[in-house]
Specification:
By secondary structure, the protein is an alpha+beta fold. Helix content is 24%, strand content 24%. The chain folds into two domains: 31 residues, no CATH class; 101 residues. It is built from three helices and four strands, in the order αααββββ. The protein has a four-stranded antiparallel beta sheet, with helices on one face.
Amino acid sequence: MRASSPKSLRYAALLGLVFGAMSLGEARAANPLELNFWLSGPRYDGTVADCDRALPTIATQFWEKESTFWNSSLKITGFSAVRETAFRPWQSDNIPRRYCTADAMLNDGKVRKVHYSLIEDGGFAGYGNGVEWCVVGVDRNWAYNPACRAARP
C-alpha cells in the first residue's frame, strides 16, 4: 500500500472545511418547486381484496405464531360466516381498509371469532394487501385486547 501524501491530506481537509462552511448557512423553508417536485404522496385506488382472500394467510400466520412463540399445537382448521363489517370507515384520505369477521374452527374443537382487516399496499415493502388479524380468546400477547376490540373498526 502507498501512504497518502501530506499534500493530498491537506487538500481533503480543505475540501471538507469548504463543504462544512457551506452547510452552516441559514435554514430556509422549501420553495414552491421543492414542495411540489416528486412529492405527490401516496395514491390509493381503494382496491382491497375480498374478505375470503385473507383466510389462508390468517390460518398460516396463526399456526406459525402459536407454534413458534407459544409452543402450542393450535391450528385453524376452517372458517365460516365470513362477512365484511366495514370498508373505509374513516375519511377517504386514510389508507383503504376492509374490515371483516369470521368464525374459525380450531383443532381443539372450539369455534372462535376472528376479526381482521385487509390493508391496501400494506404487504411487505408496500406490495400487495396486508392483513392484520386477531382470534378472540387467543390474543396471548394482548396486542388487540380486550376481546380483539382494537382489530375492529
